[in-house]
Amino acid sequence: MDALPHAGAASPGGSPLAGRRALVTGGGSGIGLACARALTEAGAAVTLLGRREAALREAVDKGAARQAIAADITGLLPDLPPCDILLHAAGAAESAPFLKSDDALWQRMLSVNLLGAAAVMRAVLPGMLEAGEGRIIAIASTAALKGYPYVAAYAAAKHGLLGLVRALALEVAGRGVTVNALCPSFTETPLLEGSIATITRRTGRDAAAARASLARHNPQGRLVRPEEVAAAALFLCLPGAAAVNGAAIPIAGGEV
């Protein structure tokens, strides 16, 4: 649960987020890691929060963040450092036909995708309100905006996450804090690789065919890159995005 070692020097003073402190959940891989890199490159002092200590240590060693905390957001949270930016990217996806999805699957999806998000937001929001400024960005999904077959629990949890974002945005509007959601379509991440493996196992299709079936959801005919999500997250952290609050921004090539 202790913070992993610090790495790297302070960012240049001319960087747009110089002096800002960011906490990135799920920062060991995928979208979270891409966002951590983008925030670090923009000058923020980034702390990662995630379950996999080895991945976190590697991210810090490679300069994606200054430090990391190994913890599970679905359990008892450790004391978190003060932050001006919360980028919540932790999440998980499981698929099953609705009638084969048991209570345990539903609890897992709700715990990590919704309840864990709420717990982290509750932990960092008081400091932001006291400071009179802050940015909270939740990585949701196009599954927060529409339904997909075989992922009812995941879609319900992501819809809940978006509801949380919209409600909290109204609570803190006018107090210097903004709360927004990014809603990417299928994105090139380790999480997607797990989905592809599930499709191949259940359907007998090869990985290339499974990947193509997911890419077809995007009218551009491709998968989203984590760096594209990170670019949108970075925009929401900049002064020019101060009026963007309670938004659900699709990153999906026109899918929704």
From TrEMBL:
It comes from the Bacteria. GO terms for biological process: monocarboxylic acid metabolic process. Residues 20-176 form the Ketoreductase domain. It holds the Pfam family adh_short_C2. InterPro entries: KR_dom, NAD(P)-bd_dom_sf, Sc_DH/Rdtase_CS, SDR, SDR_fam. PANTHER family: 3-OXOACYL-(ACYL-CARRIER-PROTEIN) REDUCTASE (PTHR42879), 3-OXOACYL-[ACYL-CARRIER-PROTEIN] REDUCTASE FABG (PTHR42879:SF2). Belongs to the short-chain dehydrogenases/reductases (SDR) family. This is 3-hydroxyacyl-CoA dehydrogenase.
